[in-house]
Amino acid sequence: MIDDTPSIVGDKAGDEKILAEAKERFALSEEMLSEIHRECIEDLEFIAGDQWPEAIKRQRSEPGGERPCLRVNRLPVFLNQVINDGRQNKVKIKVHPRRDATKDMAEVKAGLINHIQYNSDSDSAIYDAFGYSVRCGLGYFRVATEYRPGTFEQNITIKRIDNPMSVYIPINYCTEPGFADMPYAFIVESISKSEFSDTYPDVDMTDWESTAATDTETRWLTSEDVRLAEYFVRHKIEKKIYLLADGSVVNNLPEGEEAVDSRTDEDYEIRWYKLCGYKILERGIFPGREIPIIAVTGPMMNIAGKKVLSSLTRFAKDPARMVNYFRSAETEAIALAPLAPWLVAEGQIKGYEKQWKVSNKKNLAVLPYKPVSNTGQAVPPPQRIHANAIDVAVINAAKEAIDDLKAVTGIYDASLGAKGNETSGRAILARQKEGDTANFHFFEALRQAVRRAGNIILDIIPIIYDTPRQIRILGAEESSKVVRVNQDYRDEAGDNVRYDMITGEYDLTVDTGPSYQTRRMEAADTLIKLVQANPKLANVTSDLLAKFVDAPQEIVDRLKKLVPPQLQDDQDGSKGDPRDKALIRQMDTVIQNMQKEMQALVAKASGKDADRQADVDKVVIRANADIQRAKMENAHSFAMARMDGNGGTGGINEEFLANLIQMINSILARLNELESKTGTTEPAPYAEALSQGGQNEPA
Question: In this predicted model, what pLDDT tens digit does every residue of 246-283 receive, in sequence order?
C-alpha cells in the first residue's frame, strides 16, 4: 500500500468527519449484506456437516427416544467437481497495444502480470475466492502493493481475503459485475487489546473504553477485542482538459496558446484509511482508479432494488437433507431388526432370565425354557415378534433424493466419473459437457474477476514500476527471464532496446484453458498414441516426447541427434543439412576477408602516380562488383539451404562459388602486381580453403 502519510496524527476536525462518515457507511453496508451473509454462513455450515435442523436434532436426542441423525454428505463431491474444473482451466491474461504502445512492450507487461500472479501465489487467492463463490455465492481477493525488503522499490501482489464475511460493500449501489463500481468498501478484522497496544502504542484507549457502551461502539470494541477496518473510498476528482491544434490533450493550457476545445474530465483517487472506531490509525493513497477488492460472485439477481446472491449449495441442501432423512430411517429399520422382542408365557423363562435378557446381544448356543406356564398348562416355545420389513418406499425415496441432488446442481453421473448408458467417447464427453454448461456462469464470473484484477494491475504498473530497475517476466510457456525497464541497454542478441513502462496505453483480454503443464501432458499423450498407431513416427518424435515428459536435458539432446538432419532446427530456427550451412558460413567469411584484403592493397597502391592510380580504380570497381555478386549468390544459397529438405547440398552451387573465388583471387593478384614495386606481394589463401570441402575456415 502506498502510504505517504503513515502517521496517526491528523486534522482532528477532518478525522472526526471521516470517522463519522465511515461508521455510517459501515452500518449501511452491514445492513445490505446481513441477509446475504446469513445465507452464506448457513451454506458453509451445511457443507461442514451441520445438516440437521436444531429442533429435529433435539427431538432425536431426548433420553429414551434416541434416533439416528446420519449425515451422508454427498454435496462436497458435486461442489468440488465445479471448483476443481475451474482450477484445471486457468484464466490467462493477455495484453495488447492500443495507443503509443508496441507489441514488445505488451509482451513485457503481460509477462510482468504473469510473474506477479506466480510470485504472489495468486492461484491460492483467486481460486479460494472462486471456491467460496461456488460454495456460498461470494468470495473475494485483492490487489496490493508492498515494498521489496531492503529497498524503496515496490512490487504489486495479489492477496487472499480468507473470510468473505469480513468484506462490507454497499452492493445495492453497485451495478457493474463483481461490484467493480463500488464507491467505498471495508475489510475488517478483530485483534486482541494487547496486540492493538503493541502495534499502536501511541493510541490512548481510555477515553474510547469509557464511551464504548453505546450500541454503535460495541461493534468496534469489546472487553477482549478491538475491531480494525481498512476503509477504501473512491473519491471523484474533476479537472479541466484542453484539446490543442496539434491534436494533443493537456491539463494546463500553455501560455499564449489557444485551445480548440475544452471539457471537464472525471477521474478517481482511491483513498485508504486504517481505522478503529475511535481514531484513524494510518492513511494513504492507492495508485489506481478502482478499489482493489475483487469479488467473485455466484448467480445474482436484483429484486426490487435488492441484490440476491445464490450458490451451488443453496438449493441443493433440501435434496441433501432428504438423503439424510431416508438413509437414517433405512439404517434405523435395519438396526432394530435383531432387537425384536420375545413372546413368552408367564413363568415360562423363570430362572433363566439372565440368558434371555442378553439373547438379542449375544449368540447363545442354548436358550432353556419351561414348557408350562405358571398355571401348569402346556404352552409352545417362546416366539420372536419380527419387526416389519424395511419399507421399499424409503429406499426408493432415497434414490429419488439423490437424483434430485444431481438435477439441482446440474451434475450427473458422467461428470462424476460414474459409468452410464453412454458407450462412445463422444457421447460420454457430451454428457460431461452438460455439467460444465449448467454451471458455466460460475466460470464466467471468475473470468470477469480476473479481468478486473488485470485491469487494476495494468493501471498501476506505470506508477509502481516508474524507475530504472530489473524485473522478471514469465512467458506463455512459463519460462522466465529478467529484463531492464525504463532504461536503454543491449539485450542478449546485442540489440539496443528500451522497455518504457510509463508511456503507452494497453488493453487486455483473458483466456480460459488448461495450464501449460496440462497441455504438455496432453501433447505427450497424443504423441504416444500416434507412435503406437505408427511406430515409424518414433524416429522423428522421440526428442519431443522426451521433452514433454520432462526427461533430463541430456536425454533430449541425445535423442535429438537421432532425428534426420532435415527435421532439425539450427540455432537460427531454420532447418536443413548442417553441412550445407557450415559451407555457406565459410563462404561468407571468405568474402569478408577478401574485401578487407582488397581495401588494404588499395591503401598501399594509392598515391604512387596518376596512371597507376587510374588502373587501380578500374580494378577496384570490378572487384567490388564481383564481391557484391558473391554476397548475393551466397545469400541465395543460404535461402535455398533453409528450404532444402533432401538432406543434401542441392541448394548450393559449389562450382559457381569456386569459379567466383578463383576470379576474385586473380583480381587480388592484379592488385599485388600493381603493388610489386613496394616489395609487398601476398598470396591469396582462399582457393585452398574452398578445396577442402568447406570443413575449415581460413585464418
Answer: 888 888 888 878 888 889 888 899 999 999 888 899 99
CA distance 461 to 216: 40
Rounded Cα–Cα distance for residues 404 and 387 (Å): 31
- 143 neighbors 156 (Cβ within 8 angstroms): yes
Q: Where does residue 490 fall: left (phi above 0), alpha (psi -120 to 50 degrees), or beta otherwise?
A: beta
Q: First-to-last CA distance in the chain?
A: 62
Backbone angles phi and psi of 154, in degrees to 5 = -105, 150
User: In terms of Cα–Cα distance, which of 232, 249, 230 is closest to 240?
Assistant: 249
pLDDT tens digits for range 585-609: 655 666 666 666 666 666 665 555 5
Residue 454, Cβ neighbours under 10 Å: how many? 24
Q: In terms of Cα–Cα distance, which of 608, 542, 23, 74 is closest to 273?
A: 23
Q: What are phi and psi of 281, to 5 degrees?
A: -90, -40
- Reported as a pLDDT band with limits 50, 70 and 90, residue 686 is very low
Pick from 392, 144, 393, 407: nearest CA to 291 = 144
Beta strand extents in 477-589 (DSSP E only): 480-485, 488-490, 496-498, 505-514
CB 81 within 8 A of CB 413: no
Handedness of CA 536, 542, 544, 546 (dihedral sign): positive
Residues whose CB falls within 8 Å of the CB of residue 120, separated by 6 or more in sequence, listed in order: 157, 158, 159
Q: What is the 3-state secondary structure (H, E, C) of 221-242?
A: ECCCEEEEEEEEEEEEEEEEEE
* Dihedral angle over CA of 509, 515, 519, 525, nearest 10: -160
* pTM for the whole structure: 0.68
CA angle 6, 21, 231 (to 5 degrees): 40
Residues 243-256: tens digit of each pLDDT: 888 888 888 888 87
- Measured CA to CA, the distance from residue 309 to residue 306 in angstroms comes to 10
